[in-house]
């Protein structure tokens, strides 16, 4: 076990999906590391590869190349039977609680399952722990005896979170955990996640396309575009001084809760290139207002900027 | 909602079930009749199923012998009633074998996919390619004519049907997030298969069960009729029909006819029940009542 290094390191992860004679380039060399207790936001539009990256970290997808290291172990090629011992330490909350909770199990049983699999607690102690977890995520105990179709989205997402934190994981991957929820419920779930982070000191990878959410929760932000991280830095750096033209556009598209605030809107041109045929240079070049010929010819690496904690993959900045 | 349902009286429930699927109600009633007959046959008739009455050979149906007597002087009514026991003793255990063998194979083939699926599916296809009655005939005559052999052979021959139904259901849900969630939670594969996938894929197989039990009865009767299944004087319906067949030409139709009618009713009951179950479990027909 290592205490000083990063908790999670993804190195140069590539994921291609092949099928029907075509190849979808979902991830094209992503590197990312998360320190213990750190919460990292992963933002980008649909199809940018953020969910694939999350699933790759959980080993729900096998990387085409590159590696995933957790807590000092290179788990890239671990068999599922070996991976299982690590599962309590890396948990995930899925986008839709309706789809990610077994419809045939009671909510209480779903929360109990990780305890059953990974602890030696007696049945009574497990039940006690399930009730404590339910209280922790503000889930009424009545619901523990219900099935998935008898609870609301917000209640189910609380249950999913309780299930994910039952084994006190070191890393929690959250794949758009609030995007299927009503706005009012969304705020409650976010404040719950915020307080869990404080309390357990667990690291989080928060996948979202909602910048407000990321701003509220994350210490650091990674911006993904076309299967690559195009910019990464502290929350302040990204939100105050975004460097990549894509990040700037993304931020300018964000709506403010205050209707009097008007932001300069940077228009975004066209569609992202197809992940079936990657352009040779910067993936954003053909939509970028400041692109020049050099942008379209060779791949552009993520390079650190002045303060060291802010990197960007753009030759124009 | 749960409270409201329990308050509805049983009669109302039955009426509602009748509206949703009358075949299920009729079929279940016939199957219930079969089960009752099997349980109570010892109390209904004064004769034993293989008791020979030397003075009553090939008698026409009468008050003393409702279905007449056969060539050995056995009471046909008693033997038909006792046949219900054989029907149950064949239908239930062979259904158990079908499910116990077919369902896990379907789960494994569907979940693992790829080569595992390919190999399993091909093997099951080969088994299905044989005409099943001929296959049953061959295997039972090779292994010996006991009830256990008949049941196991019928169950094994039919297992691929269950495997296929479950496999296709598993394929349709194995990419669901709740399966991914089960993996992330650290479930061993057997738990993913039997705790997470099985309850979500078993509906189709369950609805198939009565239909395949009807099929098991028919095959068992066929085997007995051609003489490789359960043998006379055991009161199995197929065996009774075989026994009676030789008297049909000479006019003593009752020896074969009554067990034949019993067999038809039992098969009909299971089939109706199965059709009804499929009606009840088909989501397209799931009207709000």
How would you sum up this structure, described in words?
Chain A: Keywords: ATP-binding, Nucleotide-binding, Transport. Chain A: It is a peripheral membrane protein. Chain A: InterPro entries: AAA+_ATPase, ABC_transp_ATP-bind, ABC_transporter-like_ATP-bd, Oligopep_ABC_C, P-loop_NTPase. The complex is a heterodimer of chains A (317) and B (289). Chain A has 317 residues and is of the alpha/beta class. Chain A has a domain at 242-317. Helices cover 30% and strands 22% of the residues of chain A. Chain A has helices spanning 50-57, 80-83, 97-100, 107-118, 123-136, 153-165, 183-200, 211-217, 235-240, 245-252, and strands spanning 8-19, 22-34, 39-43, 65-70, 73-74, 90-93, 171-175, 203-208, 220-225, 228-234, 303-304, 311-312. An eight-stranded mixed beta sheet of chain A has the order 6-7-8-3-9-10-12-11, sandwiched between helices. In chain A, strands 2-1-4-5 form a four-stranded antiparallel beta sheet, with helices on one face. In chain A, helix 4 crosses helix 5 (123-136), helix 4 packs parallel to helix 6 and helix 5 (123-136) crosses helix 6. The longest helix of chain A has 18 residues, at 183-200. The radius of gyration of chain A is 20 Å and the shape is globular. The model of chain A has no long low-confidence stretch (mean pLDDT 90). Chain B has a domain at 86-228 and 258-285: MetI-like (MetI-like fold), CATH 1.10.3720.10. Chain B is 75% helix and 0% strand. Chain B is globular and about 75 Å long. Chain B has helices at 2-7, 10-20, 22-44, 76-112, 114-129, 132-143, 147-173, 177-184, 189-226, 237-248, 254-281. Chain B contains eleven helices and no strands. In chain B, helix 4 runs parallel beside helix 11 and helix 5 packs across helix 7. By secondary structure, chain B is mainly α. Chains A and B meet through strand 6 and helix 4 of A and helix 8 and helix 9 of B.
